[in-house]
Amino acid sequence: xxxxxxxxxxxxxxMNTDEEFFEAFNVALVVGGSIVITHLRRAVESLEEIRKEExx
Length: 56
Prior knowledge:
This protein is an all-alpha fold. It has one domain. It has helices at 2-14, 18-32, 37-55.
């Protein structure tokens, strides 16, 4: 989790909103196709977890 959090904060410097994250996720889906779906689910779950940790 610590490495995901570090990576998240690195991307957070570049992407300010969840909308930008989801735009990147959509690009990944278009480029990668259906094989990416499971990875996108995990990415969204991780983003939600990290957002909850930021609030706490």
